[in-house]
Design a protein that fits this description.
1276 residues, alpha/beta, ABC transporter transmembrane region fold, Rossmann fold, six-stranded mixed beta sheet, 10% strand, ABC-type transporter activity
Length: 1276
């Protein structure tokens, strides 16, 4: 060793020591540079030590080299050990610490994930097994990084602004990937060089007199290890870095999207189609990101490969460019068609998912209307249309995959043929030249194959980011308020032009108003997005700590007025001044997280037990906590599904009370409470000693409770002309007080006392169910499903006979690809100078290309289409036939996932990965066909050895993708197996046409349960009654008395014993969906479709194609006339007349909740007029109407449904008094029959009556009779 070498070695050792020390003290992760240095020098020391030991007299130097290697290995092991003791606080998951602090090779090879892999082999993994992400994956960090670049390019009007922002944000990560790819290219380049040298050595050793130097043999051994290990490590490192980058890009884009959603207008934020499109675009970006980053390296890799080939075949190497150039050109033209085809497919997917979401959210109501089969066919038709729209995209993708295979097979054929004919091989196939050339061709093939897809990948990524950028550039909702500065005079405000064209004054610095906390100065306000002010000329001041009541008729603009204080309305003129302070808002629609009640109330504020106790007591939640399981730790469910409407509102109010904001706005938040509770909450919040009044909060209260006039300091009155006035004292005079009280009472919804109790009863029924026992998928552990069975499921979706073709093609493809290699071996062994073998070689290549063409055409255009539609149909059938108990206890999002992500996986990923698994699996068997020893065997063996890495890599990728798809199939199969289903029966042969014709209903000893189990108490107990045709009856009783349950029994939703007959037909012999389609049902929650008014009125025709013949046109015109007349009779036509009439989209009309119920009444009326159905059921069908409109609607229904059998559930005495009799139920038993204002006559013994206390509590004052509970009650 020279002095210079020794000096450099000493300097390197000192430097490594310093880096190790500094890294240990100041770095979380071990240095990659130190790790790479140690591993390379370790192998070099091993090589040197062996050389020294084999040379006589140099054993001392061998010992020194071995010691050096041992020291380097020791340092490397220390560097790989995680710094857990230094970093881990108590309770930190091991996986999180390992992922942050492990060494370079542990990170690159993902060794720290071994515990997860082992655990996943034995059991299903859960969130507790995964741990947290690295700090650099924090959504806040990713958002700040991407937002910084996005804002920096705000002046850039390019449509690629988001793309440039992403490149600027993660440029160092991208450069790291490219650096590792350069190392990988270098290692790949070493493969053909290594092959050339090994073949030369083998050829030399065939002659006994030739001697190979010892150093040469050691160098070849070391080079072999270096090349193979280098390829594996560099490829793994590139994949590792690429996966980290995709995770960061996904997190950054989603964080940016979530921030934008909070700044755009409410209409855009609620656009489900827009959000579905964004989620699809993000997935496309993630899928194509790695391929796009690799594009620059493809050109470099191709260029190096061609340069290497020139060593062996000279100018003929440029023939390798021809397939690359042709593929790139084809990829360019195909990519131009691929993007529009993908956009079209994505649009169809977006429409289907949006419609499916709409259906799932109201599926119980849809089934109640009998629309289950109709909607099922409609959603499946959308799926078929979606897959048909995907055919052009699949056609292009099939062509691209075929071009990839053509490049794989054709490039070596073109190069070998050109070199043989033009003299590159000097007229003879020599193994020492042919096989290195074939290995060099592989260097060109890999980037060429990727280059075929490159343009398509880049185009899809750019298009997806472009659509994402359009979303980010949507106009944001501007704050129309002006914030006060207490330290500034009125002259120090700046005048700023608003979006509405008016001028507003903006303070120079934030603070309080010198006049009041809220002040309106000649303000004109309206909805955001409209061009005309709804309220104008507002001039008054609200002082701090005041309590103001908002009074006005329905639709006069109370919510708009309150939203102007929040800055969510549009200011057309004047000014709205508000203190710069936090505002607590409680609206009629409550947003709750799927966490405990306490977490929803406290939110992100510090927990204060005193404030918390005051909040829950003032909002009357203490008794609810006593009844709910786990009290305030009770999980509310998604959107508060596990709470009643009143409970949700009171939790929202408690959240506002706990926040202690300076301004509190309560907008219709008391109207979902029963009367007693609403008044108690009102007094506790705003009474003389109310908690909000004591805290000094300025309260604005909008409610229909007349009692509000007793607690407020002032009244803000709104009239229908858009005028707003503030009354500080005169509202207390008897005349004015009565006038305002009448306004409140007339606008009050008719149902409050009954709605809350009814909803609580439904919640209690669900709480009584053991969900894990009822629906096993809730506790499924995933250990008992056979993965191979899932492949059978996929095979059955294709068809077993058709799958045989796929299996045969999967076996023939790898065999046809390897036959040319065997032909080359035989050519070099038996006839290296015979040019006729070239023709046979090309014929084998042509055969392989033909098989590729057939395989991918069938895969993309037949098998994938059939599998996607069949699997979707099975899940859809299962969902549409699910029982009511399942639908009301299962999160809609869980079911929607199968129709969105899982359905997309079945359409795009599963067929491809399944076929690739077959193909690569057969390839692994083909390459291990035993060979005899010959001159070219070494070259072919090395070539296959180089190839096997890629084969195993693609096999594992295909298998992994297939396994992910199998997981989707598992979930689908589990869903189909464990979801309780309604029975399916063929209709009775003797069922009369048009059944039921009369509407006769008879129940004999009927007891019903929500599920079939002895441990579940019946909700209907031994009810027997006969309802004669044409009678109007009502079910009455307290909450949980069984009214709705009895109606659900008549509609076939519940498990029951006994006999239920309609027109003499036992409903147990009729399919439930058919039964419901022959009954007109109207419920409190009106079913609505995001479609035209016409489609909402006649939903049973949604699958019928419109005909253009003259008869069909006349029939449509007559029907439209009838529809218009019904809407006019119900007084909901005026809003349609200037918006397209019956062709107006429902979401554009702006119907209120009450008007939506009237639309449901119109739907039932149209159904009655078109079908003549004589059995009508109504469950609080007009509960959101004011008394005057409710009375008019019931008069209309009495006329329309004259002669029909009508069953009504209502809490309004005025409605019940219009019926022929009222059936009183208590705890599921029929205990009394009451005829309003008439003596009641029985055909049998008397029924026991309720005690007077319970009669008074129920709210009905009817004269009752009595009869026998065991005898059927006959309604005369």
């Amino acid at each position: 060793m020279s002095a210079l070498e020794a000096s450099l070695e000493l300097l390197a050792s000192i430097t490594v020591g310093i880096m190790v020390y500094v890294g240990h003290k100041h770095a979380v992760r071990s240095s990659a540079l130190v790790a790479l240095y140690l591993i390379f020098t370790f192998f070099n020391d091993i090589r040197r030590s062996r050389l020294f030991f084999l040379q006589p007299g140099l054993s001392v130097f061998g010992n020194l080299a071995a010691g050096s290697a041992a020291l380097r290995l020791y340092l490397l092991v220390l560097e790989e050990m995680p710094k857990k003791i230094l970093l881990a606080p108590a309770g930190t998951p091991d996986l999180q610490i390992l992922g942050v602090s492990t060494g370079y090779f542990s990170r690159v090879l993902s060794c720290y994930l071994n515990p997860v892999v082992v655990a996943g082999f034995y059991r299903q993994l859960g969130p507790q097994d995964i741990g947290d992400l690295d700090p650099e994956f924090s959504s806040q960090v990713l958002h700040e990084r991407l937002k910084r670049q996005w804002v920096r390019r705000s002046s850039n009007k390019s449509r690629h602004r988001l793309l440039l922002s992403c490149l600027g944000t993660w440029k160092w990560e991208i450069l790291q990937i490219m650096a590792v790819r350069l190392v990988n290219i270098g290692c790949l380049l070493g493969q053909p060089i290594l092959m050339e040298e090994i073949i030369k050595v083998v050829e030399i050793r065939r002659h006994p007199d030739n001697h190979i130097p010892l150093l040469k043999r050691f160098d070849l051994q070391g080079a072999t290890v270096l090349v193979f290990v280098g390829v594996a490590v560099s490829r793994t490192a590139a994949a590792y870095l690429s996966n980290r980058l995709t995770a960061k890009v996904r997190g950054g884009l989603i964080a940016l999207m979530m921030e934008k959603i909070h700044h755009i207008c409410e209409q855009d934020a609620q656009n489900s189609e827009l959000l579905t499109n964004l989620s699809t675009d993000i997935e496309i970006v993630i899928e194509e990101l790695s391929a796009c980053i690799d594009v620059p390296m493809l050109f470099l890799e191709t260029s190096i490969g061609i340069l290497f080939l020139s060593r062996f075949i000279g100018k003929t190497c440029f023939f390798a460019v021809l397939p690359a150039a042709g593929n790139t050109l084809c990829s360019f033209f195909l990519g131009r068609g691929t993007v529009p085809a993908l956009v079209n497919w994505t649009e169809k997917t977006k429409t289907r998912v949006a419609k499916t979401t709409e259906v799932l959210k109201q599926l119980p109501g849809i089934k109640m209307l009998g629309l289950g089969p109709v909607v099922r066919d409609y959603i499946q038709r959308l799926r078929v249309e979606e897959m048909q729209a995907a055919m052009p995209y699949r056609y292009f993708m099939g062509l691209l995959n075929m071009l990839e295979q053509f490049a794989d097979l054709g490039t070596p054929a073109i190069v070998i043929g050109a070199a043989f004919v033009s003299g590159g091989f000097n007229g003879k196939l020599d193994p020492t030249r042919v096989y290195p050339v074939l290995a060099g061709v592989r260097l060109v093939q890999a980037p060429t194959n990727k280059g075929v897809m490159a343009y398509s990948s880049v185009a899809q990524l750019v298009a997806s980011l472009g659509r994402f950028q359009e979303f980010l550039l949507l106009p944001e909702q501007t704050d129309s308020r002006v914030r006060w500065d207490p330290s500034a005079s009125l002259d120090t405000f700046d005048e700023v032009l608003t979006d509405g064209g008016s001028v507003r004054r903006t303070p120079n610095s934030p603070a309080h108003s010198p006049v009041g906390i809220i002040q309106f100065v000649n303000a004109s306000i309206g909805f955001a997005g409209v061009e005309e002010a709804l309220l104008s000329g507002i001039n008054f001041v609200l002082s701090r700590g005041s309590v103001s009541g908002i009074v006005g008729a329905t639709g006069c603009g109370k919510t708009t007025f309150l939203r102007s204080i929040l800055g969510a309305a549009k200011t057309f003129g004047g000014f709205v001044y508000v203190d710069r302070t936090a505002i607590a808002y409680c609206g009629s629609t409550v947003w709750l997280r799927d966490v405990s009640i306490r977490e929803n109330i406290v939110g992100y504020l510090p927990f204060d037990p005193v404030r918390y106790e005051i909040a829950i007591q003032s909002c009357q939640l203490v008794d609810d906590f006593a009844r709910l399981p786990k009290g305030d730790e009770y999980i509310v469910g998604p959107g508060g599904l596990n709470l009643s409407g009143g409970q949700r509102q009171r939790v929202s109010l408690a959240r506002a009370v706990f926040s202690r904001c300076k301004i509190t706005i309560i907008d219709d938040a008391l109207n979902s409470l029963d009367g007693t509770t609403a008044v108690a909450v009102l007094q506790a919040l705003c009474g003389v000693d109310g908690v909000l009044r004591r805290s000094g909060s300025t309260v604005l209260l909008s409610t229909y409770l007349p009692e509000v006039l007793n607690v407020v300091d002032q009244v803000i009155t709104l009239n229908n002309q858009g005028q707003v006035s503030l009354d500080r004292s005169s509202f207390r005079s008897p005349g004015q007080y009565q006038t305002l009280a009448n306004v409140l009472v007339s606008a009050m919804p008719v149902i409050r006392d009954g709605a809350e109790n009814k909803e609580k009863a439904a919640i209690r029924r669900l709480q009584s169910l053991d969900i894990k026992k009822v629906y096993p998928q809730a506790s499924y552990d995933g250990k008992h499903d056979n993965d191979w069975r899932m492949y059978v499921v996929f095979i059955e979706s294709i068809g077993k006979f058709k799958f045989l073709w796929l299996l045969v093609l999967g076996a023939l493809l790898p065999l046809s690809e390897f036959l040319p290699e065997f032909h080359i071996r035989d050519w070099t062994d038996y006839a290296p100078n015979d040019a006729s073998w070239l023709t046979h070689y090309y014929l084998l290549i042509g055969l392989a290309c033909a098989l590729v063409t057939v395989s991918y055409w069938l895969l993309y255009n037949y098998f994938a289409f059939r599998a996607a539609t069949k699997l979707h149909e099975e899940i859809l059938d299962t969902t549409m036939r699910a029982t009511l108990g399942f639908l009301t206890t299962t999160k809609t999002a869980d079911i929607l996932t199968m129709f969105d992500e899982d359905a997309r996986n079945c359409a795009r990923m599963l067929p491809y990965h399944f076929f690739r698994t077959l193909y690569q699996g057969f390839s692994t068997f083909v390459i291990w066909i035993p060979e005899d020893t010959s001159g070219s065997v070494v070259g072919m063996s090395l070539l296959n050895l180089f190839t096997i890495q890629s084969i195993f890599q693609f096999f594992i990728l295909a298998w992994t993708g297939s396994e992910m798809s199998v997981a989707v199939l598992k979930k689908m199969e589990r869903f189909k197996r464990t979801t309780p289903q309604e029975p399916t029966r063929p209709p009775p042969e003797d069922l009369p046409e048009g059944w039921p014709l009369a509407g006769d209903v008879e129940l004999s000893n009927v007891s019903a349960r929500y599920r079939e189990a002895r441990d579940v108490p019946p909700v209907i107990r031994d009810v027997s009654l006969i309802i004669e045709p044409g009678e109007r009856i009502s079910f009455v009783g307290r909450s949980s008395s069984g009214k709705t349950s009895l109606m659900l029994t008549l509609l076939g939703f519940l498990q029951y014993s006994g006999v239920v007959e309609i027109d003499g037909v036992d409903i147990d012999t009729v399919t439930p969906d058919f039964l419901r389609s022959r009954v007109i049902t109207m419920t409190q929650d009106a079913v609505q479709f995001n479609d035209t008014i016409r489609r909402n009125l006649i939903p049973f025709d949604m699958n019928e194609e419109e005909k253009d013949d003259e008869l069909a046109v006349r029939q449509r015109a007559r029907r439209d006339t009838m529809l218009t007349h019904v809407l006019q009779q119900l007084n909901i036509w005026n809003k349609l007349s200037d918006k397209g009439g019956l062709d107006a989209m429902l979401q554009d009309v702006g119907y209120s909740k009450g008007e939506m119920q009237l639309l449901s009444v119109a739907r039932g009326t149209v159904r009655r007029l078109e079908t003549g159905i004589n059995l009508i059921m109504m469950d609080e069908a007009t509960s959101n109407l004011d008394p005057l409109r409710d009375d008019a609607t019931h008069q209309f229904m009495e006329q329309t449904f004259q002669g029909c059998t009508v069953i009504i559930i209502s809490h309004r005495q005025e409605v019940i008094q219009t019926t022929d009799c009222a059936l009183r139920l208590n705890e599921g038993e029929l205990i009394n029959v009451e005829i309003p204002n008439n003596p009641l006559t029985w055909l049998g013994a008397p029924l026991p009556t309720l005690p007077e206390s319970e009669m008074e509590e129920s709210g009905f004052d009817f004269e009752g009779g009595s009869g026998s509970a065991s005898s059927p009650v006959v309604i005369p």
